[in-house]
Structure formats: structure tokens, C-alpha cells
């Protein structure tokens, strides 16, 4: 991933409309794709899940590393990419770094993928044969 691809997205109030209501423009698609690209790696997805589900809301890198058969520098690299995508943040305390989720970004992603409340979007009609083929 290039540094350009991982620039932190704008504030939540600058969020683009949901995919199911208005098509994304080219710039919005590039911004959102960079976050999904960061989440597209199984290691990073697991790291994000471990950080987000941690009681107390934060976790030391020393608590993340043993869960993987990877070196500490590799784990740090994956965490850096999640930080650059705006999904997590961190703070150094002595020799350890602590990480926590940035819920604004996950809320933004959820909002983009969520159908508008109370609106039922029409689906194209499909024949029984087409449905059986999938």
C-alpha cells in the first residue's frame, strides 16, 4: 500500500452517503477503498478485532504479538497500516505501545454499507433458474 492510499479519511460529518442511496464519486471511492484495503488482510482484520473487543478499550502490543506466528516488527507494520487508515490510534507508555479503536471510522464504514432505515430498496426480479444457478 502506498502512503497516498492510506491517508486518514476526513471527519465523520464529511462522510459520503451510503452505497445503497447514492453512488460514490471517484474521490470517495479511493478514500473508502484504502480503508477496506487495510482491512483486506486477515492479520490486520484479526488485530482490529482483538483491539476492538478488548475489555477496557485498549491493548498493549505485548498482548497482541503472542497471538500470531509473526515477528514483532511484522505485527508493528500491520498496526501501522491500521493507524494510517484511521482505524486505530496508539500511545507509547514507557517501552510499550497501547492501541485502541477509533470508532468514528468503523461507524463511517457501517454507515456507508447500511441501508437507509425504513426504506426498502427494490431488487431486480430474478427467475427461479437464475437463483438456482448461484
Summarize the structure.
By secondary structure, this protein is of the alpha+beta class. Helix content is 44%, strand content 11%.
Q: How would you describe the overall organization of this protein?
A:
α2 packs across α4. The N terminus is likely disordered. This protein has 6 helices and 3 strands; from the N terminus they run ααβααββαα. The protein has about 130 residues and is of the alpha+beta class. A hairpin with a 2-residue loop joins β2 and β3.
Note the topology.
Layout: H1 26-39, H2 42-52, E1 58-60, H3 61-64, H4 72-84, E2 88-93, E3 96-101, H5 103-113, H6 128-133
Antiparallel strand pairs: 1-3, 2-3
Helix pairs in contact: 2-4
List its traits.
three-stranded antiparallel β-sheet, 3 strands, 6 helices, 134 residues, elongated
**What are the low-pLDDT stretches, counting only 5+ consecutive residues below 50?**
1-15
Strand/helix succession = HHEHHEEHH
Count of DSSP E strands? 3
Q: What characteristic shape results from the CA principal axes? A: elongated
Mean pLDDT: 82
Structure class: alpha+beta
- Strand order, biggest sheet? 1-3-2
Q: How would a crystallographer describe the biggest sheet?
A: 3 strands, antiparallel
Radius of gyration: 18 Å
Number of contiguous helices: 6
User: Percent of residues in beta strands?
Assistant: 5-15%
Share of helical residues: 40-55%
Could you tell me how far the N terminus lies from the C terminus, measured between alpha carbons in angstroms?
33 Å
